[in-house]
Amino acid sequence: MDYLKTAVFGLDDGGQSMLKAALQVGSFKIMAVADKDIKLAESVAGEYGCIAYDDYRQMVMQNQFDCLLVAAGMHHCAEYIRMAMKKKANVLKLAPPARNFEEAAELVALAEQEGVKFAIANPRRFTPSFLDFRNFLQEGGIEQISLVTADCKFGGLPYPLWHTDPKLAGGGVLLRNCYSLIDQIVWNFPAPQQVYSLNTSQTADRQQRLYLTEDTAVVTLKFGENLSGNIVASRTFGPVEEYLKVYSKNMLLTVSDTYFKVSDRLGDGCKLLNYENDVSGCMKALLGNFASSVLSPQENKLVSSGRENLINMAVIDSAYLSARTGMPEEPARIMNMVQAEPVNIWPDRK
Q1: Is the pLDDT of residue 300 over 80?
Q2: pLDDT over threshold 70, residue 349
Q3: CA 15 – CA 6 distance, rounded (Å)
Q4: Rounded mean pLDDT of 316-331?
Q5: 283-295 pLDDT tens trace
Q6: C-alpha closest to that of 230 among 310, 175, 148, 152
Q7: Whole-prediction pTM value?
Q8: 67-70/51-53 β-pairing
């Protein structure tokens, strides 16, 4: 098979970014696009020479695809993603994987049952600065790490109104905005044993806060006796910035999309690498990996599988549960609560 017959669910910025990257890779043949806004779908379909739909169910029922690229909200299309998997379509879902851990685990189990791939689009896994950061850690460039922190501020960035509805969105700033940095923490460090979170909404109406997703959160992670972490997130306060810091006895690492800095413990830099923020290039690399893993699975390992991303979802669900109970929660317990296919709690980890 020289190319993958492909359809796209959702044509917001994320969906169109995946669509453009898929064409640049050359392994995808775009057969159809779908969006609730039929005028948008028809405009994009006209540009790419494919069929437009505003009904996800109709698109899946009337066609046979090798791949489905998903950027639409799960409240619109979860049922039709499952339908596509049952028709043997491989699925690449723009992060986050689902609205909650249970929904994500169900999709993972179904994909494995049907023998198709369910992958999550985490572009930062292909960002040069974060790759250099990961290589530095794996090569033992820093020892005796004691603290990992993440700052995620998104003040002023627009977001759709449904992101504020817990039933539709599943969560607020942690799930919708911080997923990528949480993925970096979980990907590069031991899985957190405990998670404690304080979440709030900055709306003036106290009663209304009970029915909105969080726009501000402070999360504490306990990895073990000697390593802890902290995440501060807000989509109310700015300016926009996202970065990780890693502290050891004698060294401080700081990484963002545009730089990787190695400093002494006081923050005085001894090495600074700057990078272009090439979002389209990262998405192209991500789509290339996904296509290769489908076309030649023996030679090409999928970088961000749905099963691997269950760990991220367990950490995030633990944070939401902790915010409700006022107590630390355990991601391993979240993993074991769901009666899906048997789950290896921490795959590829010693």
Answers
A1: yes
A2: no
A3: 13
A4: 97
A5: 999 999 999 999 9
A6: 148
A7: 0.93
A8: unpaired
Question: For residue 252, what are the β-bridge partners?
Answer: 247, 263
Instruction: Give the model's pLDDT for residue 323.
Output: 97
Peptide bond into 328 cis (omega under 30): no
Contacts of 291 (CB under 8 A, 6+ apart): 4, 25, 27, 28, 67
Contact between 247 and 228 under an 8 Å Cβ cutoff? The reply is: no
| 123 DSSP 8-state letter | G
Fold topology of 4-123+280-304? Rossmann fold (3.40.50)
Domain boundaries, the chain: 4-123+280-304, 125-276
Token couple for 261:
């800095």
Express each pLDDT in 266-279 by its tens digit.
777 789 999 999 99
Which CATH number applies to 125-276: 3.40.50.1370, 1.10.3860.10, 3.30.360.10, 3.40.50.150? Answer: 3.30.360.10
* pLDDT, tens only, 107-140: 999 999 999 999 999 999 999 999 999 999 999 9
CA 216 from centroid of its chain's CA atoms: 19
**CA 30 – CA 53 distance, rounded (Å):** 13
Q: What tokens were used for 252?
A: 């401080």
**Dihedral sign, CA of 332, 113, 5, 289?**
positive
The 8-class DSSP code of residue 135 comes to H
43 vs 66: CA distance, rounded Å: 23
